[in-house]
Amino acid sequence: MTGHNERVRGALIVGALGVVFGDIGTSPIYTVQTIFSPDDPHPVTATTTSVYGLVSLIVWSVTLVVTVTYVLLVTRADNNGEGGIMALITLIRRRGVPGGRHTKYILASLGVFGAALFFGDSMITPAISVLSAVEGVKVVQPSLHEWVVPITVVIIVILFASQRFGSAAVGRLFGPVMLVWFAAIGACGINGIRYEPEVLKALSPTYALGYLFGHFGTAFFALATVVLAITGAEALYADMGHFGRPAITRGWLGLVFPACVLSYLGQAALVLHDPESLRSPFFLLVPHVLRLGMVVLATAATVIASQSVISGAFSVTHQAIQLGYLPRLRINHTSSKTIGQVYVPLVNWTLMFAVVTLVVTFGSSASLAFAYGMAATGTITITTLLFLYLARQQRGWPLWVVLTVGGTMLSLELLFLGANLTKLIHGAWLPLLIGVVLFTVMTTWQRGRALVTAHRQAMEGPLQGFVDDLHRDGRGVRRVPGTAIFLNRGKETTPLALRANVQHNHVLHQQVVILSVQTDTVPYVPDADRIVVDALGHDDGIIHVTATVGYAEATDVPRILALVAARDPEGTLDLRRPSYFLSTIDLSIDPAGPLPAWRQRLFLATSQLTADAAESFGLPLDQTIIIGSRITV
User: Fold this and answer.
1) What 3 state SS string does 566-605 have?
2) What residues does each domain of the chain span?
3) H-run or E-run covering 2
């Protein structure tokens, strides 16, 4: 059994390599090159002092932000195994967590903006990662530069087309490739260090601190590109639900972290040895005979890097839907073992369109570098703030620990954020624009949904009172042969379709089933535990059924009803051709409503994305009746 468990853990770590670490693990391709790029609006000259100082800043930024903040601390804050900024919002909003309501609202809003920035990150990462790798062909054969963008577009389309197979399948395919990748960049780093072995001195934080405070003007602007070394930390946390914290921690500390550090040190040694290598220090670190192979491997690795943020975007979307910040989209659970492995078709194809547009518009990884850093630093800083609040309020960290640890973490992250804000006109505006747009959409949906829910509950009224009135006086309702199935969100309120049918048509089927479906946190639910039947206190053919399905199961309402019929000893439930009733809402704008007219229009437009209920519940279309009610926003 022990051997089996070890094999399972090993498989999870390899799978995590293929999904979780791709983004941060491919940062060595472009970070050092971008820091010393002559096209930077605040260029840095490659002197011995600057190379030592900046590579030390890279190493210690990765150590403090990724290893300490994320891997050792933030990943401990999970919501039933799920990570990411939306998980932190869920934990903050949870009952029993101390804190003022106003404070929680502000932090939740800040978290939503961080999630919106992460979606921007999910668009920019595939573009810059794949572009940077494919650009390696220019080192091997300069005449191929015109093919960089077309090759990148083809690779990205194939990547997004493969998402429907799920992150576990993708991880099994990509994991071994990343194992080779990290071994290769680590070996190339060691090979580069031999040029200038004294570069190992940069492992001391004194070089980072000395350069930061001794050359603050230059170092501050350089932080906008140093941050490229830590991009992917936010995806690491968002992907936690796919493989779990232990696999991520072991993979990072055992392989990814040392390999990346060796690569950065090797590139720094090569730059000190040969300043001409600044044009592409990562690829020039590779022996000439192996360079084409490294370009191919780097391209594969950056495709995998894109996978980490794509999977993270699916997870964030799933959690945002559960929290009410996005409408109910079609979500496919791709694993029967891990609830966090999901695929969201609409998000997938939207991201693909956005990524291809960025590749064609910007044309090079250097042009996207500042946009990339802004998205990552914004999300990382907000994540740290939310985590520190939870550490104090939920975990009971002493105030002095929060101030000491939090002050250290936030000081570095705010420096990164400030440095990236100086690059606004050079591309950093892009993720901020994406973030503002998506934040507006998400908060508008959340607010509009709350208003609609309140209106709807008032119109529905309590279910038990409705059934009691029917039983007492009948309300002049004629019972007609057959069975009617009314889908409802819960047991507390009356389905609008049922109320409308009684009030306006004055008819009711002999057998009425009010069905509520809830999703459990296990992949499959045994049939014996699937349904709970409540006669609602009367024996008049009206029952309420609560059905529970596993997260990996399709919701098949006809099959659920067959289980209900099997438990009916008298066989009164006629399922030969039942009628299925869905309640729908026709939304309209209210000029005097609490939301401005433009937000009402945005809410109505967003509602069009909602997945079709009949399809989601597996209802036969020729037996489904939709009854609508009008509600103003």
Assistant:
1) HCCCCCCCCCCCCEEEEEEEEEECCCCCCCCHHHHHHHHH
2) 2-447, 461-632
3) helix 2-19
- Provide φ and ψ at 518, rounded to 5°: -125, 150
Output the pTM of the full model.
0.79
pLDDT per residue as tens digits for the range 306-334: 777 787 788 788 878 877 888 888 877 66
For residue 175, the number of C-alpha atoms closer than 13 Å in the C-beta half-sphere is 18
Query: By three-state DSSP, how is residue 187 classified?
Result: helix
- Residue 241: phi and psi, rounded to 5, are -65, -15
pLDDT, tens digit, for every residue of 338-384?
A: 555 778 889 999 999 999 999 998 887 777 877 878 888 888 999 99
Sign of the Cα pseudo-torsion (276, 281, 286, 291, in order): negative
Half-sphere exposure of 595 (CA within 13 A, CB side): 24
C-beta of residue 185 within 8 angstroms of C-beta of residue 262? yes
CA 132 to chain centre: 23
Rounded to whole angstroms, the Cα distance separating 147 from 42 reads 30
Which residue is listed with tokens 């597996």? Answer: 618
Residue 4: band (very low, low, confident or very high) from pLDDT cuts 50, 70, 90: very low
- 564-572 contact pairs (CB < 8 A, 24+): 564/513, 564/531, 564/533, 567/531, 567/533, 572/511, 572/541
Task: Provide the token pair at 291.
Answer: 């360079």
The tokens for 146 are: 């015109």
Report the C-alpha gap between 121 and 375 in whole angstroms: 5
Mean pLDDT, range 445-451, rounded to an integer: 90
- Please state the CATH superfamily assignment of the domain spanning residues 2-447 in this structure: Amino acid/polyamine transporter I (1.20.1740.10)
Contact (Cβ atoms closer than 8 angstroms) between residue 516 and residue 547: yes
- Collapsing DSSP to helix, strand or coil, 480 comes out as strand
Higher per-residue pLDDT: 45 or 303: 45
- The amino acid that residue 184 corresponds to is A
Average pLDDT, the chain: 85
Do 618 and 555 form a contact (C-beta atoms < 8 A)?
yes
For residues 308 and 129, the answer to whether their CB atoms sit within 8 Å is: no
In this predicted structure, the answer to whether residue 441 has a pLDDT above a threshold of 50 is yes
Classify 476 in phi/psi space as left (phi over 0), alpha (psi -120 to 50) or beta. left
Which residue from 257, 134, 273, 269 is spatially nearest to 186, judged by alpha carbons?
A: 257
Name the helix (H) or strand (E) containing 518: strand 507-519
Q: How far apart are CA 244 and CA 246, in angstroms?
A: 6
Exposed e or buried b per residue across 104-130, where buried means at least 16 C-beta atoms within 10 angstroms of its C-beta: beebbebbbbbbbbbbbbbbbbbbbbb
